[in-house]
Specification:
This protein is α+β, with helices and mostly antiparallel strands. It folds into 3 domains: 124 residues, no CATH class; 109 residues, Ubiquitin-like (UB roll), CATH 3.10.20; 118 residues, Beta Barrel (L,D-transpeptidase catalytic domain-like). It has a 9-stranded mixed beta sheet. A 3-stranded mixed beta sheet has the order 4-3-10, with helices on one face. Helix 4 crosses helix 6.
């Protein structure tokens, strides 16, 4: 073998070995600044890539969800990452992985399985922004109150009430801790009653609450006045009128320690109630079926309550705590009971048009022409009623005695009533001017026979 061949035989392997060693060292140097061969982290291929580059890739891939907050009332709210400047960073964990890698041993990864790494980021947020989001939660805003409270008994339009503004308040610090803890550990948090607190009551406040508790049964409605169309419950609003709250937030009591009920206030309430319902012998405004309102002074019909009897009953029943429905006594009882004591069944007589109207349960049942008193003895406008019913009657007066088939007096002391008049040849119009009665309401026999059978004694009659 020639000397040249020998040189070549030695030189080529040497060059190849040098090249391999050089390439190995070159790659080792490459892996000094990047991750070693075969490195996978959180599904990202990291070989040769630096920490900053992989950190950016992992941050772009990582999703931070919103935090779902369910308050004690079951209402759901959310806090979103962008609203609290959430920051994501994998640098420390990436650096730890990188530190454990020897760049000169990268070749080992060619011949063995390299475990894929899974890491979590360092998460941070702006604490002030997070707390601001918490404080703006509707649940927190609705239950946050300044310190201090007040307990007292007050008189309102609805009667005495216990005023207590010491309502449960949200402990914002508890809510903040629950949300802060859950923000990066779970995607939802459920708040419960532990988020609330109630300020302690003072001895004075406790005494006021005990006083209220001692009278609470008194304010429970028991009695009801049956006024016909209306039922008046003797409720807190009314009962509060009968007792007095003293300056020390205690109710006035008698020597036995019982509530002192004001007789004069009960009397005043009775008078007010009777004034509203009493209509007998009081001028009234009457709205006729034609919509016109008439002022009528002569009143022979209406309601007159027995004030003394009502007072005696209420004075006793309230003090004894009776529970019942009470129908008051009447000195004069209308056909219909209620503020509107005319009711839906009545008779109207239009003296100008000379027409009688009969309504039953609000429905017009009869419209009949009549003849009323002549100008020298006019039939007066009035509110009256059918006092009685008779048949086959002789009506007597100065210079006359007339037989009628039906007689229904409406103004007995004046001898005025409804009756048939066989002597009238016509009805309605202006016949009353020349052939009017002595004050009675003359009707055709066919009309009054039907009316007589239809109506009851006591039915109101309004003449206008």
């Amino acid at each position: 073998m020639s000397r040249k061949a020998k040189i070549i035989l030695v030189l080529v392997p040497t060059l190849i070995l040098a090249s391999v060693i050089g390439l190995y060292i070159l790659l080792a140097d490459y892996y000094k600044s990047g991750f070693s061969y075969g490195t996978w982290i959180n599904g990202v291929y990291c070989t040769g890539k630096g920490i900053d580059e992989i950190n950016l890739e992992l941050k772009n891939k990582y999703e931070t969800g919103s935090l779902k907050i369910t308050d004690p009332d079951g209402k759901v709210s959310f806090i979103y990452p962008e609203n609290v400047s959430v920051s994501i960073d994998f640098t420390d964990y990436l650096q730890d992985i990188k530190n454990k890698q020897n760049p000169y041993l990268w070749v080992q990864n060619l011949f063995k399985h390299v475990p894929k790494s899974s890491i979590e980021p360092d998460l941070s947020y702006d604490e002030e922004m997070l707390y601001e989001e918490i404080e703006n939660l509707e649940f927190v805003k609705n239950n946050t109150r300044p310190d201090g409270h007040e307990v007292k008994i007050i008189l309102t339009d609805e009667g005495y009430e216990l005023y207590d503004d010491n309502l449960p308040r949200v402990d914002v610090s508890v809510v903040k801790e629950a949300v802060r803890t859950a923000f990066f550990t779970t995607d939802e948090v459920t708040l419960d009653e532990s988020c609330f607190y109630v300020e302690p009551y003072t001895d004075k406040e406790m005494r006021i609450m005990d006083e209220w508790e001692s009278v609470s049964d008194y304010f429970t409605p028991k009695l009801t006045l049956d006024m016909g169309d209306e039922k008046i419950a003797i409720d807190n609003r009314i009962l509060s009128r009968f007792i007095t709250l003293e300056e020390n937030d205690c109710f006035l009591r008698n020597e036995e320690g019982d509530l002192s009920i004001s007789d004069s206030e009960i009397r005043s309430f009775v008078d007010e109630t009777c004034d509203r319902y009493d209509t007998y012998d009081k001028p009234r405004k009457y709205r006729a079926h034609n919509g016109k309102v008439y002022e009528i002074d002569k009143i022979l019909y209406g309601t007159l309550l027995n004030r003394d009897a009502m007072y005696e009953y209420l004075d006793s029943a309230i003090k004894e705590g009776k529970q019942e429905l009470y129908t008051p006594e009447y000195l004069h009882k209308a056909y219909h009971r209620g503020l509107d004591d005319i009711g839906p069944t009545y008779i109207e007589i239009d003296l100008e048009k000379q027409v009688l109207y009969y309504f039953s349960d609000g429905e017009l049942k009869m419209e009949a022409d009549v003849v009323t008193g002549k100008p020298s003895s006019p039939t007066p406008p009035m509110v009256c009623c059918v006092f009685s019913k008779s048949t086959d009657v002789i009506l007597k007066g100065t210079n006359y005695a007339s037989h009628v088939n039906y007689w229904m007096p409406i103004y007995p002391t004046a001898g005025i009533g409804l009756h048939d008049a066989s002597w009238q040849s016509a009805f309605g119009g202006d016949r009353y001017i020349t052939h009017g009665s002595h004050g009675c309401v003359n009707m055709k026999n066919d009309d009054i026979s039907v009316l007589y059978d239809e109506i009851e004694v006591g039915i109101p009659v309004i003449l206008y």
